[in-house]
UniProtKB/TrEMBL annotation:
Provenance organism: Cobetia crustatorum
Alphabetical list of InterPro entries matching this protein: PdxA (IPR037510), PdxA_fam (IPR005255)
An annotated Gene Ontology molecular function: magnesium ion binding
UniProt keyword NAD, yes or no: yes
The protein's annotated pathway: Cofactor biosynthesis; pyridoxine 5'-phosphate biosynthesis; pyridoxine 5'-phosphate from D-erythrose 4-phosphate: step 4/5
Note describing how the cofactor binds: Binds 1 divalent metal cation per subunit. Can use ions such as Zn(2+), Mg(2+) or Co(2+).
Domain of life: Bacteria
GO annotation terms (biological process): pyridoxal phosphate biosynthetic process; pyridoxine biosynthetic process
Catalytic activity entry: 4-(phosphooxy)-L-threonine + NAD(+) = 3-amino-2-oxopropyl phosphate + CO2 + NADH
Keywords: Cobalt, Cytoplasm, Magnesium, Metal-binding, NAD, NADP, Oxidoreductase, Pyridoxine biosynthesis, Zinc
The name this protein goes by in its record: 4-hydroxythreonine-4-phosphate dehydrogenase
Function per UniProt: Catalyzes the NAD(P)-dependent oxidation of 4-(phosphooxy)-L-threonine (HTP) into 2-amino-3-oxo-4-(phosphooxy)butyric acid which spontaneously decarboxylates to form 3-amino-2-oxopropyl phosphate (AHAP).
Length: 332
């Protein structure tokens, strides 16, 4: 009997999430933990039938005893979808269902029925169109439901960790969102959780500039001089090991990354393209700063692949392994 229980939310019903959960169930015995889907059981069964994959479901409630781990078997905490779902065709009426699965997984982690939650991809648009105006992603939703002021999105693949100073913001709003207070909170959470979950004592963090060539001494933007440099100096004075701000175009080269535990990028598409180029399919998305452990895949709903069986389960496998390692470290 494994002591860890990992709650897996199925994400957008029309996307690849449900079939990735079925693929994961096929290799359940390879994980040193019990996997529990938080999903619509009928949907999982229909995707398994469509792809010709083995699946026996065991419907239970959070806190109930779980069945023995066997390949092709999966425990499920049922959350019914609102309308039946066709692969690749989003129906926003299921947007609330997607959040309901998250709520069940979060509550299970908070109650100690799960050691961690791992999320399959959702469609932000579908959730917003279901009436959840202001929704921007799992990361911010978890922050709000867990009642913390700040969280940090970090994606990690073998050899590289990239965290973000700002997450799901229109590019036009990014510069104004980079403040001394925000950067201080983000760097504090990043350093703290690199130690707590990944054993990096006194972690070294390389920080990107915002502007081309880190502002070129103020000729190509002032955010480095006005905000980033003074914030890093203040944090260095308190003992944090910070490099930069460095020009983002050359920071992601082997010489600069040598000995660095994580890079802090200023915005989503400054850091994530590099990470996904380096490790798409074997990376995990990790939310730092939460009172619970949450990881996710490095990809989206891939509607073009849904129902084809061609989606790669690699990132979900990695996300589960990272969640198991983090939950074990948190328990120590
Ligand atoms: N964790 C999450 O919930 C998450 C993450 C990223 C994007 N999204 C959402 O997903 C939706 C689609 O986003 P997108 O088009 O930018 O990215 P996407 O990752 O869904 O697709 C980008 C490309 O990668 C391919 N791809 C994605 N996952 C794959 C897999 N497992 N195996 C093989 N190929 C794969 C797709 O076929 C597509 O060509 C958006 O609504 C976005 O917000 C959610
Ligand atoms: N920014 C993530 C990515 O590009 O992979 C993705 O949108 C998921 O974010 P959440 O985990 O906050 O939903």
């Amino acid at each position: 009997m494994n002591s860890q229980v990992i709650a897996l939310t199925a994400g957008e019903p029309a996307g690849i999430g449900p079939e990735l959960l079925v693929m994961l169930a096929a290799q359940a015995e390879t994980f040193p933990a019990q996997l529990v889907a938080v999903a619509d059981p009928e949907l999982l069964v229909s995707r398994a039938q469509l792809l010709g994959l083995p699946l026996t479901l065991h419907e239970v409630s959070p806190g109930d005893p779980l069945p023995p781990v066997r390949n092709g078997h999966l425990a499920v905490w049922p959350v019914a979808s609102v309308v039946p779902s066709e692969p690749g065709v989003i129906d926003a009426r299921n947007g609330g269902h997607v959040l309901a699965m998250l709520d069940v997984a979060i509550a299970a982690c908070q109650a100690g029925h799960a050691s961690a939650m791992v999320t399959a991809p959702l469609s932000k648009a579908a959730v917003i169109e279901a009436g959840h105006v202001g929704f921007t992603g799992h990361t911010e939703y978890l922050r709000d439901v867990c009642g913390v002021e700040e969280v940090v999105m970090m994606l990690a693949c073998p050899g590289l960790r990239v965290a973000l100073a700002t997450t799901h913001l229109p590019l036009r709003e990014v510069a104004d969102a980079i403040t001394p207070e925000g950067l201080t909170r983000v760097l504090g959470i990043l350093a703290h959780d690199l130690t707590r979950y990944f054993g990096r004592e006194a972690p070294r963090i390389a920080v990107c500039g915002l502007n081309p060539h880190a502002g070129e001494g103020g000729h190509l933007g002032h955010e480095e001089i006005d905000v980033i440099i003074p914030t890093l100096e203040a944090l260095r004075a308190k003992g944090m090991q910070l490099e930069g701000p460095l020009p983002a175009d050359t920071l992601f080269t082997p010489r600069h990354l040598d000995g660095i535990d994580a890079v802090l990028a200023m915005y989503h598409d400054q850091g994530l393209p590099v990470l996904k180029y380096a490790g798409f399919g074997q990376a995990a998305n990790i939310t730092l700063g939460l009172p619970i452990v949450r990881t996710s895949v490095d990809h989206g709903t891939a509607l073009d692949l849904a129902g084809t069986g061609r989606a790669d389960v690699g990132s979900l496998v990695q996300a589960v392994h990272v969640a198991i390692e983090m939950a074990a470290a948190a328990r120590d």
